[in-house]
């Protein structure tokens, strides 16, 4: 049995789609999966147990990347095709059953829209798949000696970024309550991400540098070893929640009603003001600290 799963370009959306993928694998454990996604998200699926092939869709002029995908998939007969990008590609393939998510942005939780594709209510929560090597690497970086509080100070646009100078006073409040903890700073590859993380690393010299050059599955395994993740609305926030880490997402002009972190111990806090318009700088250190300490108390440390 072959299943084609077309998912997102952006990491956060791809993470949110993993619950559907896990459901399909549980329903048809012997199926061979081909996963089509953008380059940023491709590493997310490297340890997925049903993976036969990953097709990385590099955006090309005039939507030629869709033609590339069709060419890669048309020689095969598919039992099921799931298209979360709302394209026409699956209609041009030999497929037994097709499940297509309508394209475009709309109100309501993204994870609910994903669940509706397969008529699943409640929608399955996101998950991550990691290898023994990923876990071994994570153990090297995130030790057992202290409870680790993870911070994610980066995002894909500046409007989502909580002021980096506030992480020190936030840390001081958390440390005052739990002096045994140690911080870790998570960020993605590239100079832009490193530049956003650098001030926080400088302000917290005892912090573990957990960013920049790790694979997505290594990052997921590292996050799973942390007691709490606090960070901006980003792919890392969704990855932390999917890894099972207690997660506190920080929202300003992005909409928590659409992209709140999804997980058993996932929470969020939004800046005061109209949703979608509130400046994230309006989020107060004291309010975030209160929410974080409440989540730590609830989940244990």
UniProtKB/TrEMBL annotation:
Q: Molecular function terms in GO for this entry?
A: ADP-heptose-lipopolysaccharide heptosyltransferase activity
Gene Ontology cellular-component terms listed: cytosol
UniProt keywords, alphabetically: Glycosyltransferase, Transferase
Q: Does the keyword Glycosyltransferase apply?
A: yes
Gene3D superfamilies, alphabetized? Glycogen Phosphorylase B
Record GO biological process: lipopolysaccharide core region biosynthetic process
Q: Does the keyword Transit peptide apply?
A: no
Question: What's a Pfam family in this record?
Answer: Glyco_transf_9
Protein's name according to its UniProt entry: Heptosyltransferase
**Species the sequence originates in:** Acetobacter ascendens
């Amino acid at each position: 049995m072959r299943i084609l799963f077309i998912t997102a370009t952006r990491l956060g959306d791809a993470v949110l789609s993993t619950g559907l993928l896990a459901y399909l694998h549980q329903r048809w454990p012997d199926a061979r999966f081909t996963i089509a996604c953008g380059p940023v998200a491709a590493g997310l699926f490297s340890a997925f147990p049903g993976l036969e092939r990953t097709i990385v869709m590099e955006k090309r002029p005039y939507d030629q990347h869709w033609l590339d995908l069709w060419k890669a998939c048309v020689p095969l007969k598919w039992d099921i095709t799931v298209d979360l990008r709302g394209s026409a590609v699956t209609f041009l393939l030999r497929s037994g059953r097709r499940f297509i998510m309508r394209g475009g942005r709309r109100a309501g939780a993204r994870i609910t829209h994903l669940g509706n594709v397969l008529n699943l209510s409640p929608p399955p929560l996101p998950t991550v798949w990691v290898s023994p090597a990923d876990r071994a690497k994570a153990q090297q970086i995130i030790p057992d000696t202290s409870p680790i509080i993870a911070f994610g100070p980066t995002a894909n646009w500046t409007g989502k970024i909580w002021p980096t100078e506030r992480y020190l006073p936030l840390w001081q409040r958390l440390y005052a309550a739990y002096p045994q903890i140690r911080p870790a700073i998570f960020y993605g590859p590239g100079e832009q991400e490193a530049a956003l993380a650098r001030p926080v690393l400088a302000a917290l010299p005892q912090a573990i540098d957990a960013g920049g050059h790790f694979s997505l599955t290594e990052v997921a395994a590292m996050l799973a070893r942390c007691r709490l993740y606090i960070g901006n609305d980003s792919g890392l926030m969704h990855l932390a929640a999917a890894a099972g880490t207690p997660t506190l997402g920080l929202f300003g002009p992005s909409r928590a009603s659409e992209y709140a972190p999804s997980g058993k111990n996932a929470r969020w806090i939004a800046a005061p003001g109209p949703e979608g318009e509130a400046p994230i700088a309006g989020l107060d250190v004291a309010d975030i600290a209160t929410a974080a300490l409440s989540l730590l108390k609830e989940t244990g440390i």
